[in-house]
Design brief:
Rossmann fold, six-stranded mixed β-sheet, 20 helices, ATP binding, ABC1_TM_sf
């Protein structure tokens, strides 16, 4: 039950709907409970001497009216409570989404996309069923049990005690089974999460799977996970299937005892026939709620297991947080790095960066080059605080970046990552994503600077062309240039290009860099590239290896060192000659 404690706040928000639903449930059950009593009065009136106060037809009419009113009020009770469950589902979904937007890259690098989607869909559905249909039946069962047992006791205390003899044993058995249901529900949700993740991964990697003819292997892998999910569900079904007969058997045994004991009392004259019929009517009303208890327990355990998974998201904490005491700062582009070391997953044995110290003045162009895994991307990702940074390591305009509000810091930085992500929208909308309320002129100007404008104009719908999911309809180079245009539209004080031209040829790269030369102006520009041609005009070039700066200087100075930079330069010149040949 502790897993469900977070739901109290949501239920309290909809308490008006729940109280209204409770009122309607009292109404519908009141008329339902009236029917056996009217039947008792009708039967007793037949055995009375003389002329009865009301004829059987009168009681039949009242029974029909009670049944009609019960049905009408039942509609209102169900819709009110089920709608409350839907509203709470909406509120939880909004909170989950808002929470996800506050989490940082370390969280998303740990979690699977399919698992997150499974929590939003399947786990949230289980919670909604608990708060809607489950709550409806919990309240309804409580009302029926209390009212029916009270009326049965009014008719005969002894007969009521006989009817509930099997119940204590039944409750003990069900309690033990419900604990097993909770554990199995958690396993089922985890299996479903694996299944969803597998589907999401295979859909995203459809091109790779087909290119390597791995359809059969992936089908087999999916079948294995699906089979495990099936077995988990079958285990739950077996428990649920055993629970329902147990609940039914308790009701049947109670009925059998009542027929034997009550029949004897009617024969002996201790109980009227009308009382006996009404008692059995109320006992019959307990059969369905008793059977529903098993289903309610199943809903409760599934909802608790699902809520425990949702709580993991709602309670997750971002490692990159807003400063407790933000410092006022105007970001111009002066960057200072002091003895910076960094490792992913807080693993000091494999640092991504080691003892980096650097000063970048406003308007300076910094180039970074090095082999794969040398720490180039790690360094530039820390500037907008995409990953946590220790205090006193990175300063922008003299202020520790951990004291700068995240929104202000990231709005001042235009970051173009290696892997360009495009939304399933138009090309124009993807570019405009960089600035809220961007005009068409601003979008087109950014596209021209990024060198994507000629390609866009060749599309039939120009800037209104839909790019498909993840920009699937565009080439790698077109996606990269669209991402560049999106960053340029921000008009940032600091522009970071993390090898964003790797998918274009050298000539196109030269054209784009020439367009950007005028755009740079007084902006601080950091360019990560494996092509030295993109770095020639930089004021300072860093050569990195194994997380350290091994060489630094401008293009001419590094060539004169005859070190690693010069070796890379010779290699690329040779490659260009071979390609030209």
């Amino acid at each position: 039950m502790s897993e469900l404690s977070r739901l109290y706040r949501y239920v309290a928000t909809c308490r008006g709907a729940y109280f209204t639903g409770l009122f309607w449930l009292f109404g519908t059950n009141g008329f339902a409970l009236l029917i056996p009593w009217l039947l008792k009065l009708a039967i007793d009136s037949l055995g009375k001497q003389g002329t009865p106060m009301h004829s059987p037809a009168w009681y039949a009419l009242l029974i029909m009216v009670s049944a009609l009113l019960q049905g009408v009020i039942r509609i209102f009770s169900r819709t009110t409570l089920l709608h409350a469950g839907r509203r709470i589902e909406y509120m939880i979904r909004e909170d989950l989404y808002a929470k996800l937007l506050t989490l940082d890259l370390p969280y998303f690098s740990r979690e699977r996309t399919g698992d997150i989607m499974s929590r939003f869909a399947n786990d949230l559905t289980n919670v909604r069923m608990l708060l809607g249909f489950g709550m409806l039946n919990v309240i309804n069962t409580a009302i029926v049990y209390v009212a029916a047992l009270s009326l049965m006791g009014h008719i005969s205390i002894h007969l009521t005690l006989c009817a509930i003899i099997p119940f204590p044993l039944t409750i003990l058995i069900v309690k033990r089974m419900s604990a097993s249901m909770f554990r199995r529900s958690q396993i089922i949700q985890e299996e479903l999460s694996r299944l969803t993740s597998k589907v999401e991964e295979n859909v995203s990697a459809a091109m790779v799977i087909k290119s390597y003819c791995r359809e059969d292997a992936e089908t087999g892998s999916f079948a294995k996970i699906s089979s495990s999910y099936l077995e988990s569900n079958m285990g739950m079904a077996r428990i649920r299937g055993a629970m329902i007969p147990i609940m039914a058997a308790s009701g049947a045994m109670g009925t059998l005892i009542v027929l034997f004991v009550g029949g004897s009392r009617v024969i002996s004259g201790e109980l009227t026939l009308g009382d006996f019929v009404a008692f059995n009517g109320y006992l019959a009303m307990l059969v369905w709620p008793t059977l529903m208890l098993a289903w309610i327990l199943n809903l409760l355990q599934r909802g608790a297991a699902s809520m425990s998974r949702l709580n993991e998201v709602l309670e997750a904490k971002a490692t990159v947080r807003e400063p407790a005491q933000p410092a006022p700062v105007t970001i111009n582009g002066n960057i200072e790095i002091r003895d910076l070391s960094f490792s992913y997953n807080d693993n000091p044995l494999s640092p991504a960066l080691s003892h980096i110290s650097l000063h970048i003045s406003k308007g300076m162009r910094l180039g970074i080059v090095g082999p794969i895994g040398s720490g180039k991307s790690s360094l530039v990702r820390l500037l907008p605080r995409l990953y946590p940074v220790a205090d006193g390591k990175i300063f922008i305009d003299g202020t520790d970046i951990n004291q700068i509000p995240l929104k202000q810091l990231r709005e001042a930085i235009g970051f173009i990552p290696q892997e360009s992500f495009l939304f399933s929208r138009t090309i124009g909308a993807n570019i405009a994503y960089g600035k809220e309320g961007a005009t068409r002129e601003e979008i087109e100007n950014s596209a021209r600077l990024a060198g994507i404008a000629p390609d866009i104009l060749r599309f039939p719908d120009s800037y209104e062309t839909l790019v498909g999911e993840r920009g699937v309809t565009l080439s790698g180079g077109q996606k990269q240039r669209t991402a560049i245009a999106r960053a340029l539209l921000k008009n940032p004080a600091i522009l970071i290009l993390d090898d964003p031209l790797s998918a274009v040829d050298a000539r196109t790269e030269e054209e784009i860099l020439a367009n950007l030369a005028d755009y740079y102006g007084e902006r601080t520009v950091i360019i990560v590239s494996h092509r030295l041609s993109a770095l020639r005009k930089c004021n300072l070039i860093l050569v990195m290896d194994e997380g350290r700066i091994v060489e630094q200087g401008n293009h001419g100075e590094l060539l004169a060192l005859q070190g690693r930079y010069a070796a890379i330069h010779r290699e690329q010149l040779l490659r260009m000659e071979i390609e030209g040949y």
